[in-house]
Amino acid sequence: MKKLFVGISLGLVSLFAASPLALAHALLVASTPSIHGTVHGPGVAVDLKFNSRVDGTRSRLILVLPNGGNQVLSLMKQSAPEELAARIELEPGTYSLRWQAVAADGHISRGEIPFKVQ
């Protein structure tokens, strides 16, 4: 019984000790466009929401064009500290949005959102 208690205790200590590391990264919780979603153009609003504050001056949004080229998007002034946004004009086609978010503590998170424009 004592071994079981020690094992459970060590497991809980490990879990709580690791949780600050997990919370250090900005995780994407919502996006417009949505992953594999379809939006109507030509004016497309890009809005990414994270679980923590992100540094809008050091974060990046890169649009992958249908022809494979890349376009760095200009970020709008942050309306909320956990949000990144841009406005773009797009023709119909298949695109992908690559994001790199820098959390307030400096940790970097990356991801990609494929989407279509009609």
Folded structure, characterized:
GO terms for molecular function: copper ion binding. Residues 1-24 form the signal peptide. It is found in: Cell envelope. This protein has 118 residues and is of the alpha+beta class. The protein has a single domain (25-117), classed as Immunoglobulin-like. The protein is built from one helix and eight strands; from the N terminus they run αββββββββ. It has one helix spanning 2-23, and strands spanning 28-32, 37-39, 43-50, 60-64, 70-72, 83-89, 93-102, 108-117. The strands form two sheets. Strands 2-8-7-4-5 form a five-stranded mixed sheet, with no helix packed on it. It starts with a helix and ends with a strand. Residues 4-22 have low confidence and may be disordered.
Write down the overall geometry: elongated
Distance between the termini: 63 Å
Structural class: alpha+beta
Order of strands in the sheet with the most strands?
2-8-7-4-5
The ordered H/E elements are HEEEEEEEE
Q: What is the percent of helical residues?
A: 10-25%
Average residue pLDDT: 86
Protein name: CopC domain-containing protein
GO cellular component, one term: cell envelope
Pfam families: CopC
Subcellular location: Cell envelope
